[in-house]
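Recall that a protein's primary structure is simply its ordered list of amino acids. Everything else, from secondary elements to tertiary packing, is in principle encoded there. The following example makes that idea concrete.
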Amino acid sequence: MRAFSCFGVCLALVAHSLLSPLGVVSETVGINGNQYHDTGKATSSCTRRVTVEGEGDCYYSLKRLVSGTGVTNMNARGLFTSVSGEVVKYKDANQDGEWTLESVPKLGVATGINAPTSRLHVSGEIRASRGSNLYPADQRMAENVRDVDGADSYTRVKQLRVRDFEYHAAYAHEMDMPAGGTVRSVLSQETGKVIPDAVRTLVGQESWGAKGTQRGHLEVDAVQQILPDRLFYDLLAAFQQLAANNEALQAQVNALQAEVTQFKADTSDNFNAAKADRLNLRDTIAKDKSDQLRDDMDLETKLAAEEAARKAKDDAIIKQLDYVSQVFSTYTNYN
């Protein structure tokens, strides 16, 4: 709780403009059954004097406009930023004119949000000059730090199903999303079965659109939200497990490649040795055959010489027999 003085600030935020148009000194406007009177330029510290239901004090008029105190059918409330940057709202005021402010627990931005379900609930996209969402993860702030089972994360991540889908037309319109735009994501119900901690279930019912309209009407009880941080770090742990598996497989491949290289070298050496042996054997066989052939040629020469000598001897014997036959014939005829 904190106090806030508004004696010097009298700008009232109303659904209908209360500022006097050019040439108009004052103006009374009826909004939601309440009479708001702009008396024009004031002589006091207020730039404009706005009275509610005839109340003329600048501070209390502003207080009633902002807080709705004493004014019926007024849903708007004051929203302020404290000097520390915190978003606060009006709670009440004391008799001295000091406001009591309280922190805004949930803030909804843009249309289509009946009741914010988170600290900041934005209907539409969020854009920042730097795409980051900072949060403390200082080791000095952590307790019970322990390792994550990467194998378990890897097993769960493999079961996640990435889907393409379109949001219901009523929801897409009120959330200021492109009509018929395809979304690629995981579904809360499917993800919750695999990684329960990555899904958060909200309380209450939310609705979009209206029945009978072109876009239709959608009501959802206990909306289930994906927690991107939880899902991201399971993906990171799964990636680390996959990287470790890949490194182990790569080490095995390197070892097998070294064995194959050594086997090829040994095979090449054995092949070269066997080739040399075959060449040596071939040379040995060729030499043996050459020697045998030379021996065969020498034998044929010897046989031819022996045949010639035998023939010469036979011829000599025949001549001798012819001579003896002639002598014997001559001897016989002489007698």
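The chain has three domains: 2-104, 148-226, 241-335. Residues 1-25 have pLDDT under 50 and may be disordered.
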